[in-house]
Amino acid sequence: MAKLPDSSDSALSAQRLAYAHIRDRIRAGTLAGGERVVPEAIAAELSISRMPVREAIRQLDSEGLLTIRPNRGAIVTTLTPEDVLELFEMRAVLEGLAARKAAIRMDDDIEDQLFLILRRMRRATATSVDAFIEQHNAFHEVIGAGAGGSWLRAENKRLAAAVEPYLRLYFTHLDKAQFTVEEHVALLEALLTRDPDRAEAAMREHVLSTAPDLVDALRRSDEAG
């Protein structure tokens, strides 16, 4: 006899759907900093009730992507240039730790995955920012998976989601895609040495290299605005 779907399972699935929908729009920049997220509108878009949308909003608030304000509801968190710099500094430390661990555990499978993604990343520089960021994220996720440890991987993914709208600015308006490809080549070379110190240093340098130009562009934008 077929099992009837549990209402709690359905609610959880709806919450996950709403969470992914809102998170992905924030990451893509289609929900910009300071923009209000209206539960009723999201529920109508997804053909679900408002309750799972509200639960998803609370989860995104706890992760820092949304900010719930009295009488204004939920808005997309606006990061200052200083906030962005701090996030990149945090990423440098944690991604560096992942690279250190991945270098120790490096095997042929991880190596093959990284080479494949690097080739796709090169091709994506001629297609779209979306395609490039997809491969960029995949490269870092393979390193995270290679490092082992679910807590480190989860935190790195959370930080990656927080800075993704700003990475889009970096690649789109500062035209840094090709430069970033070459940095990933150097990063892969460091990982292939299986030297944890070299791999960690290369990753920290890679992550922090993004910050100065991006933060400077954000500050200029704030001054102009």
Describe what you observe in this structure:
There is one protein chain. The chain is mainly α. The chain folds into two domains: 7-76, Arc Repressor Mutant, subunit A (Orthogonal Bundle); 81-224, Four Helix Bundle (Hemerythrin (Met), subunit A) (Up-down Bundle), CATH 1.20.120. The chain has nine helices and three strands; from the N terminus they run H-E-H-H-E-E-H-H-H-H-H-H. It has helices at residues 7-28, 39-46, 50-62, 81-105, 108-124, 129-147, 150-173, 177-192, 196-224; strands spanning 36-37, 66-69, 73-76. Strands 1-3-2 form a three-stranded antiparallel sheet. Residues 1-6 have low confidence and may be disordered.
CATH architecture label name of the largest domain: Up-down Bundle
Radius of gyration from CA coordinates: 19 Å
Q: Provide the succession of SSEs.
A: HEHHEEHHHHHH
Instruction: Report the sheet-strand fraction.
Output: under 5%
Please mark out the parts with pLDDT under 50 across 5 or more consecutive residues, or reply none: 1-6
**Cα-to-Cα separation, first versus last residue:** 63 Å
The helicity comes to: over 70%
CATH-defined superfamily of the largest domain: GntR ligand-binding domain-like
Major sheet size, sense and barrel closure: 3 strands, antiparallel
List the helices and strands and how they pair.
Layout: H1 7-28, E1 36-37, H2 39-46, H3 50-62, E2 66-69, E3 73-76, H4 81-105, H5 108-124, H6 129-147, H7 150-173, H8 177-192, H9 196-224
Antiparallel strand pairs: 1-3, 2-3
